[in-house]
UniProtKB/TrEMBL annotation:
GO terms for biological process: methylation. Gene3D superfamilies: Vaccinia Virus protein VP39. It comes from Nocardioides caricicola. This is Methyltransferase domain-containing protein. The keyword Protein biosynthesis does not apply. Coiled coil: none annotated. Keywords: Methyltransferase, Transferase.
Amino acid sequence: MSTEESSFTLGTAFRPDTIGDGAVRAMVGVLDAQDVAPSIERLRAWALAAGDVQPGEVCVDVGSGTGVMTRRLAALAGPDGQAIGLEPNEMLRAVATERAAAAGSTAEFRPGLATDIPLPDASVDLVWCERVLQHVPDPETAIREVARVLRPGGRALLLDSDHESRVESSIDPDVAREMLVAFLGQLANARSARDIPRLAMQAGLVVDPDIGSSALVYTQEELQDFELYRLSGDQAVAEGRITRAQADEAVRSMSEAARQGWAFSAITVFGFVCRKPGSGTVSS
Ligand SMILES: C[S@@+](CC[C@H](N)C(=O)[O-])C[C@H]1O[C@@H](n2cnc3c(N)ncnc32)[C@H](O)[C@@H]1O
């Protein structure tokens, strides 16, 4: 693992096996910025309400990142409950552990992959898995694992992005389309959200008909020299889809619009409430 790498590269971003320490630091900055985005908070609040965590329950946050949601689950589960953040990336686990301690949270963090959840069958009341499946090449196994660890009557809140829904205001549409295609090809599971209902049902879960959605809207600040567009442009050039000049112009025109304050770019994040049939309880 390189510690020199200081920014994301397409294809390695968020993959615990390939991402370098410098890129993890950059990722923490991105996640912190997104944590305060009102659009993300609206979806999280909706999902938390649907999940209805009770004091004493056992909650697991799969792919917990900086642990922000693990801490919220720990607060809801209370002193008699438990909130475990599963995070394969060691550096993110360290950040999450440090932040939980500083906040006086009981949230705990363990290594683990979505496709191999290190917990017994039927041992969890609630699973939270937010913007993780898009980075998992085998989401079918991951969702089967979620169903396995849930107790009958347990709930899974699966929130994920659909990158094909990306919109932007200030890039030539033909160029933007080529950049998006190049970007989609680099992600493990770019259209993740649209497969979740099928995979959850095939794993034996029941999906609530009310599906949540919210656009992750990038700020004007983020859109200046936006790395996502720079990387998408570089990839599209490498694939011969657009010219270098077109890629540079895409980043420049979006940056200029952001300086004027009217740039707009977003992707849709969907939320699915999945329930394991039956009833029971993990907590005593
Ligand atoms: C976009 S971040 C989301 C973090 C957090 N869930 C949030 O919403 O703030 C994606 C997270 O998924 C983790 N991740 C990537 N592949 C994973 C896998 N196979 N199993 C579990 N987590 C994974 C990454 O390390 C990272 O923490």
